[in-house]
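Why does this matter for the project? Reviewers at the last site visit asked to see concrete outputs rather than summary tables. In response, this paragraph embeds two records directly. Each consists of the residue sequence and, immediately after it, the corresponding structure tokens. Nothing has been edited or filtered.
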Amino acid sequence: MRTIDLNADLGEGGSQDAALIALASSANIACGGHAGNDDTMRAAIDGCISAGVAIGAHPGYEDRENFGRRPMDLEPAAVAELVSRQIGRFAKLAARAGAEIHHVKPHGALYHQADHDPALAAAVAESVMCLLPGCGFYVPPAGALAVAGEAAGLDVWAEGFVDRRYQENGALVPRGEPGAVIGEPQDAIAQALQIACEQRAKTVTGTWFPMPARTLCVHGDSPQAVALLGAVRRALEAAGFAIRA
């Protein structure tokens, strides 16, 4: 049986975490940078343990006003420090709960900037490797983060999105542009099946590009997140996929 992972973002202040945990096979838990605090991290960790969901750290720019989605001009050393600090805080809470950290996924603007900047990508990957040697690293396929993760010795998991549309170059359509976000379950299902079954994704212009994803993401802060994740999970299972990290 083919397998694929479904990941969702947790601990970001929304009210859907419990429902998302019930549908996901792995979770990206905000580490107090773009969102979250010790209480939300503990709650998300405990929920994942109870449900058997793989636990991941989700570090991001410390810019709560913009939810970590605004690009920032930071040197690689500063990025390495914030990633290390956030993962270290999260790891202490996970250890107290007896939980193993399965993966790390950078959040928002950090994810996208680092994927196009080899120096930032190396800073992120090496910080992860220092604290969590060999763990999973959820990143876009074939970009700077994947290259840096491989070089650092991390277990790179190429990630696709089922609730965002893609540009011709394989990057996500910026959130401010029309049609950037997929809100209809049938559209999310179509994109999930294209990625999972065909290892490719369709762009907004109708072209295709390779998407060899091991994990598919639904953003947890979307009002449609639970509906989309549930619909995608059912469709993938009907197509013969086992959902697991």
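We now turn to the second protein, recorded in exactly the same manner.
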Amino acid sequence: MKKIRAAITGVGAYVPEYILNNEELSRMVDTSDEWIMQRIGIKERRILKGEGKGASDLGANAVKDLFLKTGLKPNEVELLICATATPDHTFPATANIISDKVGITEAWSFDISAACSGFIYAFEVAAKFVESGEYKKVVLVSAEKMSAITDYSDRTICPLFGDAATAILIEPTAEDIGLMDYILKTDGSGRHYLYLKAGGSVRPPSHETIDNREHFMFQEGQTVFKYAVSRMADVSVEIMKRNKLESNDVAWLIPHQANKRIIDATARRMGLSPSKVMINIQKYGNTTAATIPLCMWEWEKQLKKGDNLILAAFGGGFTWGAIYLKWAYNSTN
């Protein structure tokens, strides 16, 4: 019997209409387009506007897009997983809320939190349910409203992040395509350098935490950058070596979109030319768990069945990893 593999068979996405560009940002905080572009490579980012709007609204729109593109019906979905660091609430899971908003009533659902590595962590989890033969139609949503935890008075943080969501359909295949290999890592000591200080059980909300602006993201930028450059590159090279892939064998590197210098360093270590690297950070910023599948969505028409893809991410936790994926279809959309 041939091995069952988990294959991506459709990609949907949603990005908010509102565009916050560097010019507008420079009127909000002491920064400039030149400063941001030189250090990060971001020109603009999308922001979800509207009272009472959260990650579930982004995610639900992405799932609706997936339904429209693939013909998938809500009652066909057996499992929905949401990768998010910005859930609507501590509980219930944002995945539960998304399911309700799109009419999924025959599935179970839950969230995974791994910051910027959320997609690759959640993809491996979803793949296991498919590879076991238990489920045939799993939807993986990556939904982030990063603007909700971004301090727009902090010039080192506010240029980085944007809001977006994606939804991918994962199905079984007996062909030699889909998820081929993965390496996932955690170093919990990194929790000191990138985190949300308040709002959890250790430091619940209070007047003090609000006054101290502790419900916005904290990042020690230089430390995170140093770790991200080495770890993301190391794991990408490791997965290539483990699968005997040369640079010529790789069709695309799909890196987490946090910083163009990190992306460039990873590509150089892998021996890849810029033409083989998906980069859309300049348009969307860092959408955390959504960046990698957002690239898949944008490049979908250029992807060909059998393409060797390396997915690589680094995020808070610290969490990081790489996935070797063979693309499963030629897009007709």
